[in-house]
Design goal:
The complex is a heterodimer.
Chain A (H helix, E strand, L loop, with lengths): L9 E3 L2 E3 L1 E2 L7 E2 L17 H13 L19 H10 L7 E5 L3 H16 L4 E6 L4 E2 L6 E2 L6 H9 L3 E4 L4 H8 L4 H4 L4 H16 L6
Chain B lengths: L27 H5 L8 H9 L3 E9 L6 H13 L6 E5 L7 H4 L12 E5 L15 H14 L5 E7 L6 H9 L7 E6 L3 H16 L4 E6 L4 E2 L6 E2 L8 H9 L3 E4 L4 H9 L3 H4 L4 H29 L1
Helix pairs in contact in B: 2-5, 5-6
Classes of the chains: A alpha/beta, B alpha/beta.
InterPro entries (chain A): Mrp-like_CS, Mrp/NBP35_ATP-bd, P-loop_NTPase, YlxH/NBP35
GO biological process, one term (chain A): iron-sulfur cluster assembly
Pfam families (chain A): ParA
């Protein structure tokens, strides 16, 4: 999605060098995707092997000076999630951003994710509702494709901030497919406004001087 | 610097736990003790239990959120419309068990007489309960579902899985190895980011010799309820599932368009095949279900021919 497919991970004297997305080296990335010989190769690993890799991603990658480390996780409350929390605990993570879609079926699952956060002592920074309605490009009618209201309800249930809703936006999807910088290229799109607002709320809530 | 042991010799190989690539692997001791080499007796027990189950179908996806559980539930509903067919739906998404909600079984236990459902969701006392289990415990649960549930005479057992290619998938394939799985249906959405993961899923099936019934492209186009014009919310930037299936020589079972009624019905726990019989999504589903039935019947006759010859 970030236009880094096919890049390779190299070792340096401080460990694995992450892949930089831009010339300014302001965004770096690490993924098991970089370690596969072929992009269609299936990673058929059981828990322990995945846990070992996650630990290495935290401790053996030469991240350098970072303002934010964002960790994208698979759905669920299993090995990967436990391994990530354990690996990051010594570094006092700011917390978790929990993403849901509007429908009750999604909320039903994500409630359990919030319990996971509580049980592992991970602070929930807030809930984001994704795929929140679609505005028809032909007639501007807005349809709740995946029902409505789930994100706010979830935040209310859990007593955490509701950070915002991101609408379905084919421009965003296409941008990710083609590895473009959506933020740079489509500042006028509805998803951009929503994403910017959520990012700003996170920045506002982040303490300036970290311990 | 330690590399991740991706040259694992395999838990049942002679080199298990002893190979150079085993150093540092958390399972090294277990493998070296030879525990991985003896086949699990549960496999034979499950084979016996599965003798009364005619057809077994796995529903897989590479990515989450593509509509796999929705599909599994409606495959079950569609097949169960024939009162003479006995259907069982097994939900092995241990951490995210959505099937009870989609089937309308949260609280009220009413279900069609010929449709049985099993899910870890039924074992949780609160909707907030999280199943925070590592792989081995999830595998144990799956083993119990297959071995200890009294499935009875079943025409179709549909197994809904979590996304990916991990513990749950390996376990269900392993435990059903002797019982013969008819095949897998793989769900995707049209965009390349989803297809990329489906290709991995297809490779997984080929690796574990799991026949592929076909691919379903979900969320394939959206008809605006006001102006009736079509939009591609998830654009098929690389040709969608159709081109991928052609390249990989895998059947495309069909394309299901986005219909807001689907989401609403899943939230209410009702079959949208009944509630929206004229929706293009319903028509697509019915065609796909028929193709799956045809695949299973063909398989059955082939097997019967093999046995009698």
């Amino acid at each position: 999605m970030l236009g880094a497919q096919g890049r390779a991970v190299h070792q340096c004297d401080r460990g694995w060098a992450p892949v930089f997305l831009d010339r300014e080296q302001s965004i770096s990335l690490m993924s098991v995707g970089f370690l596969l010989e072929k992009p269609d190769e299936a990673v058929v690993w059981r828990g322990p092997k995945k846990n070992a890799l996650i630990k290495q991603f935290v401790s053996d990658v030469a991240w350098g000076e970072l303002d934010f480390l964002v960790v994208d996780t698979p759905p669920g409350t299993s090995d990967e999630h436990m391994a990530t929390v354990e690996a990051l605990r010594p570094y006092q993570p700011l917390g978790a951003l929990v993403v849901t879609t509007p429908q009750a079926v999604s909320v039903g699952d994500v409630r359990r994710e919030l319990t996971f956060c509580r049980k592992t002592g991970l602070r929930v920074m807030g809930v984001v509702e994704n795929m929140s309605g679609f505005t028809c490009p032909h007639c501007a009618e807005c349809t709740s494709v995946f029902s409505r209201g789930g994100g706010e309800e979830l935040a209310r249930l859990a007593g955490v901030p509701f950070l915002g809703s991101v609408p379905l936006d084919p421009v965003l999807t296409r941008s990710l497919e083609e590895g473009h910088d959506f933020i740079q290229e489509f500042p006028g799109s509805p998803a951009f406004t929503a994403l910017s607002s959520i990012a700003q709320k996170i920045l506002d809530a982040t303490p300036m001087c970290l311990p | 610097m330690e590399e991740v042991p991706h040259d694992c010799p395999g838990a049942d190989s002679a080199q298990a736990g002893r190979g150079a690539s085993c150093q540092g692997c958390p399972n090294q001791r277990l493998c070296a003790s030879g525990a991985g080499a003896t086949p699990d007796p549960a496999i034979e027990e499950i084979k016996e239990k599965m003798k009364t189950v005619k057809h077994k179908i796995l529903v897989l996806s590479g990515k989450g959120g593509v509509g796999k559980s929705t599909f599994s539930a409606h495959l079950a509903h569609g097949l169960a419309e024939d009162e003479n067919t006995q259907i069982a739906l097994l939900d092995i998404d241990i951490c995210g068990p959505s099937i009870p909600k989609i089937m309308g079984l949260e609280g009220e236990q009413y279900m069609e007489d010929n449709l049985g459902v099993m899910s870890v969701g039924f074992l949780l006392s609160s909707p907030d309960d999280a199943v925070i289990w590592r792989g081995p415990k999830k595998n144990g649960m799956i083993k119990q579902f297959l071995r200890d549930v009294d499935w009875g005479e079943v025409d179709y057992l549909i197994v809904d899985t979590p996304p990916g290619t991990s513990d749950e998938h390996l376990s269900v394939v392993q435990y059903l190895a002797a019982a013969h799985i008819d095949g897998a249906v793989i769900i995707t959405t049209p965009q390349e980011v989803s297809l990329q993961d489906v290709r991995k899923e297809i490779n997984f099936c080929r690796k574990v010799k799991l026949p592929i019934i076909g691919v379903v492209e979900n969320m394939s186009g959206f008809i605006c309820p006001k102006c009736k014009k079509e939009s591609q919310i998830f654009p098929p930037t690389t040709g969608g599932a159709e081109l991928m299936c052609k390249d990989l020589e895998v059947p495309l079972l069909g394309r299901v368009p986005l219909d807001p009624v689907i989401g609403k019905n899943c939230d209410k726990g009702q079959s949208f095949l009944i509630d929206a019989p004229d929706s293009p999504a319903t028509l697509a589903y019915r065609s796909i279900i028929q193709k799956i039935q045809e695949f299973c019947s063909l398989h059955q006759s082939e097997e019967e021919n093999l046995i009698s010859s």
